[in-house]
Design goal:
Length: 437
């Protein structure tokens, strides 16, 4: 598996997407911590609302722009397309740096939306290029490395952003870091080998709404690809709600400071990365074998989600604990362990589904299928932000929110079992649609 990282057809692409995810999370985590512990109070705003609004603002562009991004990714040579995206990232990060230095909350949120827009254009090519650069036998391992790299980048970006913003003149450190990372990402993108356009004669549809509807309808022809995308979208709904609550959960329920927020986010990211790698090793390059991990991952998301809710301590007191004080309490260590297991199961759940849609999507339409996936992912995550705001503003608590999500996830467990049991039917139906197309 690791040989792929040193190959020209995968290594530069891996570093490009890694640095992009790393940069996103330096910015996002620094912003969330700044809002939770400082800016929201200064502006007289509700912290929970602003944090969930921030999550929604980053995801909304995926819903708005993914349909057009998928068209462009299928029409253009992909390495050139990626380089254009990375230049755009650099320009946005220059404005983001200015927002941090001035402490302008509105500008910080605007740039967060712009980052989401840039990422929404990268999404279709991020997954669409893999089947062009890797063989079928390498696809599971490639996806495992991408998911591991993404969440390792989230881990490192989360830690870096959290630590930097906590320093004296932390906003200046964050401002410099996001610009440097954007430059490094562009340099890595210049080494990506050419990936020819799969549909160079495609006429672009600039009507974002109609194209989005068209893409979803066409994906629905590949019925089991569509349901795999629904599974991925649910995972991001679940994960988006959890991650958005971590700052307030840490402050109000665990009674801990910004360092512990970073610790929780880091453990969650590391767990998904390890789960992704484990899935790749277990699958041994077999898509069917990787799918066997689906019900295991889904069941873990339910069981360990309930455990996080149940294990939330009832401790109270003045002041906020740092990491040293936090890990000195055994009940807090149990929460960290359960959170790690929950995220590990998330890795088992997500890798097989991404591999499945890449393999069974038609070659000349693959980036648009990934775009359709991003549209539905974004819709689910925007709904997640709205759902969390409504739940918490109507008497709900964060531990109850975690338990509620884990309970709903039982339906996903049943769906995964049905999905796996009909694998041969999946192959037959998708081959029939390919022939009709």
């Amino acid at each position: 598996m690791l040989k792929l990282l040193t190959s020209l057809r995968f290594g530069p692409y891996f570093m490009t997407q890694f640095l992009g995810a790393f940069n996103d999370n330096v910015y996002k985590n620094a912003l969330i911590i700044l809002v939770t512990y400082s800016l929201a109070a200064k502006a007289g705003l509700n912290t929970d609302t602003i944090v969930n609004l921030s999550a929604g603002l980053f995801i909304l562009p995926y819903f708005l722009f993914s349909s057009f991004a998928g068209q462009v990714a299928d029409k253009m040579e992909k390495s050139r397309y990626i380089r254009i995206i990375k230049i755009t990232e650099f320009l946005f990060m220059c404005l983001g740096a200015l927002a941090f230095i001035t402490g302008n909350l509105v500008l910080l949120l605007v740039i967060l939306f712009c980052m989401g827009a840039q990422s929404s254009f990268f999404g279709p090519v991020k997954y669409g290029i893999l089947p062009q650069q890797l063989s079928k036998q390498e696809l599971v391992n490639g996806n495992s490395l991408v998911e591991m790299g993404t969440f390792l980048a989230i881990l490192l970006g989360t830690i870096t952003g959290g630590l930097m913003i906590s320093l004296d003149h932390g906003a200046n450190w964050v401002a410099g870091a996001v610009i440097v990372l954007a430059i490094m990402g562009w340099i890595a993108s210049t080494k990506i080998p050419d990936a020819p356009a799969v549909d160079p004669d495609l006429e672009l549809n600039y009507n974002l709404l109609s194209e989005s509807v068209k893409i979803i309808r066409q994906i629905y022809q590949y019925r089991f690809v569509f349901w795999a995308i629904i599974g991925i979208s649910w995972f991001w709904f679940y994960g988006a709600v959890l991650l958005a609550q971590f700052p307030a959960y840490t402050k109000n329920y665990l009674h801990a400071n910004e360092q512990v927020v970073t610790l929780l986010l880091s453990i969650f990211s590391l767990g998904i990365g390890l789960g992704s790698i484990f899935c790749g090793y277990y699958a041994r390059q077999s898509i069917r074998r990787s799918l066997a991990m689906l019900p295991v991952g889904a069941l873990g998301l339910t069981l360990f989600g309930l455990c996080v809710s149940w294990l939330t301590p009832a401790a109270s007191g003045s002041g906020l604990m740092d990491i040293k004080d936090f890990i000195a309490h055994s009940e807090n260590l149990r929460i960290l362990a359960v959170l790690a297991l929950l995220s590990f199961c998330g890795g088992l759940f997500i890798v097989p589904l991404y591999t499945f849609i890449q393999h069974y999507a038609p070659q000349n339409y693959r980036s648009r299928v990934v775009a359709g996936n991003n549209i539905l992912n974004a819709l689910f995550m925007v709904c997640a932000a709205g759902f969390a705001i409504v739940f918490l503003n109507n008497g709900g608590t964060i531990p109850r929110l975690f338990a509620f999500l884990a309970g709903i996830n039982m339906i996903v467990c049943i769906g995964c079992y049905v999905f796996i049991s009909r694998f041969k039917t999946i192959q037959q139906l998708n081959e029939a649609v390919r022939v009709q197309s």
